[in-house]
Amino acid sequence: MELSFMSCMPRTQDESSHPSADLAGLDEVWDARSKVTLIHCFRDEPNIWNVNVVYRSDSERRQALNEAWRRIEQRMTAMGFNFDLQQLKKKMKQLRDQFSRENKMFEDHSSKWQFYEEMRFLNQDEEQSSGFPVERSSFSSGPPLTVSPIIIANHFQGKGDSMLFDSRLNAADGHSLSLDVGVKSEEFEHEGEVCPRHGSEGSGAMVSSSGIILSELAMDELLRLVLSRKGILLSDTCDEETKNRSWRAIHDSMRAVTQQLPPVDELKEVFRRKQLHLSDIVCRHAKADVSSAHGFARYIQSIVNKCLPEDQFSIRERELGASILRKSFCPQEVRPL
């Protein structure tokens, strides 16, 4: 019996064991998938959490925060999660409080809490001192791997959501891989816009042959679902009908992340291009060690190519894969050495 990745996620340190465990009523609607989606949406709004964002006045700060939470609510609704604004804020506060407790309990960042890796972007000092690239705010004019103080007043007025997609971030386009055919703004109120941000944050998104855009979150889920079924989908011995059933199951599971899905054949093609994209990164950084972002990309590619036995690829590694691979796709990671 096939299970999706999210249904078999490890619960070595379940939230219910912590003081901030959800009330029973909310646990029925807040599952792991909805929490991860909220965390991703929150991460994409640095106005809320980035300590380097500076406002000229309290009114500007309130306006920016209100706009950011409005976008989060719209994105969650567009992905099928029907929580109101207060529920979203309350859940995010619970998650942040738990993350803070995990940091205090595990000063070496060895926490096994289910959502710890997804929320490590909040450890901004760690991000700047680590070997991983810093996830940059779209407002920042600083160089890669730094987060400089940000004054957003001039950007905020008159630009609306488009300020999230500053053209300055296209500087890396010359180094982009041709396999990234285009990336759409993830703000759902601009459904018709396609923004070719090949090298910027969010460049994990891809476009199907019929023009349907799969967001970074959707591509993360596709990668996890395929790898969780790699024994079937990447096997030379499984028959095509068995593989097709697995692909149809993946297609159905993807609807929990996005309502706009290409047909199954196009989904296969999108994964193939993502596989080639990853392979290209691996080829450019063949000497990277396995603990680095590059090395982890090479490790995942080895799994995809069936070079490692099944017992060396755990559920926990699948869980961490999307987070670390996302950092592998930053502009500085895809440039030749």
UniProtKB/TrEMBL annotation:
PROSITE patterns: MADF. Residues 78-105 form a coiled coil. The lineage of its organism: Eukaryota, Metazoa, Ecdysozoa, Nematoda, Chromadorea. SMART domains: MADF (SM00595). It comes from the Eukaryota. InterPro entries: MADF-dom, TF_Adf1. Residues 37-127 form the MADF domain. Keywords: Coiled coil. GO terms for cellular component: nucleus; transcription regulator complex. Residues 1-21 are annotated as: Disordered. Signal peptide: none annotated. PANTHER family: COREPRESSOR OF PANGOLIN, ISOFORM A-RELATED, MADF DOMAIN TRANSCRIPTION FACTOR. The keyword Oxidoreductase does not apply. GO terms for biological process: regulation of transcription by RNA polymerase II. This is MADF domain-containing protein. Gene3D superfamilies: Homeodomain-like.
